[in-house]
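Let's do one together. I've listed all components of the complex below, 763 residues spread over two lines.
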Amino acid sequence: MNREHIKTFILTILVIMSIIFTQKIWLYSPVNLLKSNSNLQETSLEEIKEIKKQVIMPRSIVVSFGNSYYTKLQQDMEEVWEESKNILSNYFIADVKIISSTDEKYQENIRLKSIELEFGKNISSVLVSSIFDTVDNKIVNNIKDIKKILITTSNKGIIYITEKNNNVYEIKLEKPEGHKQALNLVDNIQARDYIKYYPLFADVGNYTIMPINYDRTIEKTFVESSIDINDEALTQERVKPFFNDSLDFVKTIRETSGALVYMYGYGEKGVRISTKGRLEYSSEKGNATSTNVLEALDTSIKFLLKHEKLPEKLYLQEVRHQKDKSYFFGFGYKIDEIPVTFNSSNMKYPIEIEIYGNKVKSYKSFIRNTMNLPKVDSKNPILLPSQIIEEHIDLIKSYYLADNIKVELDEENVLAHIERSIDDVEVLYYDTLEDEKRQLLLPVWKIQIDKRVYYFDSYNVELLYSHLMD
Amino acid sequence: MDWSKAKNVLIVAFIITNMMLVYVIQKDLFNNGELQLINDDYINNVVAYLADNGLEINIDIPKEIVSLPVLMVRYKAFDLEEMAKVFLGENYQIVNEDTYISADKKIEKITSKKFIYTKDPSSENGGYPLDEKEAIKIGREFLQEYNFMQDDLELQQIYFGVVDRFGSMPVYKLVYNQIYKNRFLAESYIHVYVQHQEVIGLEAMLLEYEKTQGEKKKTIPATEALLRKMNDILVDNKEYDKIRISDMELGYYFNTRDVNLTTWDTIASGTAFPSWKIVLDNGKTYYVEAFRN
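Okay, and this is what the predicted structure of the assembly comes out as:
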């Protein structure tokens, strides 16, 4: 009996020992790694599709109520876009007739009750079409890119699409149905408390719409960079995915400014994080393989999912097919439904990504998160762009003259020229990029006049920045 | 069922299993050990292969395979004003923010990492013949006088010849390199130029050890480093009839050349990886990272 006890005891010890030893080498087993990889792939395919549908959205939506009254949506944008998608899906899926049209016809329709969706720069029709799970349809085959879509309410089953070179197309449903949907949507928005826009300079032939009341306060918000370079451990965690989750063979360099650079091999791959928390990644170009814009966007979203904590309101601002056959995607994001912008020589959009073949060639990101700090309310109401233009008319005049130095201008008529060339106004959050933490985002009016874009503080009217359009 | 017998069988089975597991774990530990050697036959094969490709080896190839860690190092920052006070005395003139001069001396900085001191040769010393021993003594005394004679500096090379910057008279160039735990720490150096009885020039770029990063890892053998770098060396030295390797050593190299996203000017500190240094007899030096990834 005693002997049996000893045997049981030895056996137990041996079993425990084998468990401990097995654990020690368990990590080397590839089974786990394979398992987790396949899981990741499965989930990401669904996610990629979902995010693709989210990021391809208009950069602005203008609703026309007729009688020269309009509104530019801010808070209700997502809701209206969802509704608009329901209306638009028919045009991409069902049988349509595409007729070349004119700008006059477009303008005529926008003055009536309608919804105008304006997309980012150079968004190809196949991208917009992919939202409706179709990439082969008449719109994709006949229209190269989509700058604007106008959903009319007066014509049964007609929408207008303009390309970036301002070609206008009329898309007519063969069997129109549910055309009341658009009218209901417009009426529904009209019944709400909206910000009124009006073509203030219509008397000089400029139909750009400008707000005539802006009784909303936009709070100044404190933000911080998504990467805190002073927290080395967290920063390392953040860059690990760029190097297959291991920094064992990754060299680190700290610059005199405090910026950190991580490098793999002899310059094959590198990540640089600036002191303000801007991340820049570059990788050696692989071999060129044929790709199209949809695949390239998939690749970039897959990359974003793996390497970035994506902001909720991410949207595609620009697509470019570059000379070396790579694709460039510029993404923007919003805080409290307001797009965030900044002025930097290094990057134009908060997220920029270049895809070569099926590989990410370069990637830059500068994302800010709102901080848990009280927001700053301004005592003054937000000023209107027309008031700002009036206040700064001398400055605008001098820029206008300097920008058009080669053109012979009658100085007395400069004002009329300026009024005619006011192109677009938009509310944005402006990041002055001064601080890594506790950076105050300022609400600004982005006003485009002639070839120049101005950013004015919408509370104190100060000109924060201006640049010539690209 | 006879439980007693079953237990015996299980005990034997588990003993065998555990022995196998211990072997696997031990083998791994052994691989991480401090020192291993590569065998001579393999080295001879590699030497023959390199020779067939036009790369001659003039040295005994190191046989060691050791485990080394990664080091964090930073460039020593020189303050030009302080340097000027030390080397030029109180009466100096500022030519620009990077150059200060006095009567016959000049001090320049290239970013804060590197500085160059030059002195016009004194006429009274002209023609004084100098032998190597004396040159070394003068150089060492100069470094001691100006507090540059650090413990981690080692005199590694001495050239005697004409250096353009110092005219047509030959000078002794003493090359001091930094070491860390008996291994080179590149690239860091002090060059001392001695002519006749005085030091007429000094160039310094030094690294400072910050910390050791992570665990020690096994380095690649010298033979592997040679094979990895062979093509680069051959392409880079096409114009030479014979390419000979005159030195090979394992140490730490802070690679600031193969960088993208940053430039040497802005670098303050970083990781020095264990690397093999391969020196050719034409003076060219190559570094090969000694980790296998």
